[in-house]
Amino acid sequence: MSESQMHLAAFVTAGPGRPGGWRYPASVPGWLSADYYQNIARTLEDGRFDLAFFPDIVSVPDRFGSSTDSQLRNGALGSLRLDPLHVLSSMGAVTRHLGLAATVSTTYAQPFTVARSFASLDHLTAGRAAWNVVTSFQESEAKNFNRDEQFPRERRYARADEFLEVAAKLWDSWDDDALVLDTVEPLFADPAKVHAIEHKGEWFTVQGPLNVPRSPQGYPVIIQAGASAKGKDFAARWSDVIFCSHASLESAQDFYREIKERAAVHGRDPNQVKILPSIAPVVGATTVEAQQKFEQLFDLVPPLGGLSTLAYHLDVDLSTFPLDERLPDVEVPGVEGHYREVREITEREGLTLRELGKQYGGRVEGGFIGTAHEVADGLQEWFSEGACDGFMVQAPYQPGGFEDFTRQVVPELQKRGLFRTEYEGATLRENLGLERSAVGEWSNRIPKSASNVE
């Protein structure tokens, strides 16, 4: 795909997703069925999407009022969430081109397990695996992994840096031609081309080598969504794809410029970092129909469901503030990008906290509501005005939201020459316009603080 064409990823939840979307009459409640996700995968591949992206949470959030009630009652963010790696395996079995991205936290996993999982997925899907790297920040998650409280933000990123370093060493522990399969000699794998890594760092001691050969992409595609200063630096250093969220074209443009500049500071080609802001388009046959659909979806959003999700993202108990007053200035331990987004919306529209909860639960990032032509106009503006390299498409309800987009908006983008009509490459990296990862490629990205201590 040329740089004049955008990339498209789908933000798919292995559960009910948005707090109002699961209530929409056209929503299909098949969240515990492999067929449900396989049908979404086929829809996305028919639409020539680059990849399907699965977020993950390893707890039922209890940040709102120190209770899981608002999450479970409203079918919000983490009320139900299957393990995304298993979901991706089922989707990979019925597709041949669609990239498959799963979220795994560096805060609770171990590098060897994660490196092996994604190398295995990359082999089994012929080079379509992607890893969304996150650092967990909720105490409800920490308490599921033998901790009373979460690591401080700076320590989370220090652990993540070393985690990525170890994963890369493990993926590099097999040379590309180490697997020989000579039945006559015999020589299954050349011992001279499989290497122990002998890593001893602050967080991890790992001998290696990995027991999976080097995979088709070298490394899986790395996705990250850091929005704080530390997070943006981490993303610019490690990520192939950056997922973000913006309340306006202007804020998206500022973020785009900053990340590309940070990538260059780390010695990377900025074109090798793809930035995909989140959108949740609502598409109709007419403008009026699309607006009516949006209003129906919006009416189904319970304010406390949206606030519960926002409380999780900010890591702030929003139940302590008056619902009929504006969100005050608060210190945010969680996702700073979401806080800046909701502050912008609050100030621009004068929303009370109750109204903000409903807005957050039913938000349409970028305001993409209308006919396929109108939505494509908005996407073209963001893409051509230097705000993104493509989009992370959320469905206001599943699976119909993805069907509407692929069957109506994608053909409009293709007609304008803004999106592929066929897949160009054999692997996800190739379809994203990214180079295959060479052995040792990440060595110059490792912060000195993350290198071996012995």
UniProtKB/TrEMBL annotation:
Keyword Cell membrane: no
InterPro entries: Diverse_substr_monoxygenases, Luciferase-like_dom, Luciferase-like_sf, NTA_MOA
Database matches in Gene3D superfamilies: Luciferase-like domain
Luciferase-like domain span: 22-386
Keywords: Flavoprotein, FMN, Monooxygenase, Oxidoreductase
Listed SUPFAM superfamilies: Bacterial luciferase-like
Family named by the database record: Belongs to the NtaA/SnaA/DszA monooxygenase family.
Entry EC no(s): 1.-.-.-
The protein's enzyme class: oxidoreductase
Protein name: LLM class flavin-dependent oxidoreductase
Record organism: Rhodococcus artemisiae
GO MF, one example: oxidoreductase activity
Keyword Cytoplasm: no
Pfam families: Bac_luciferase
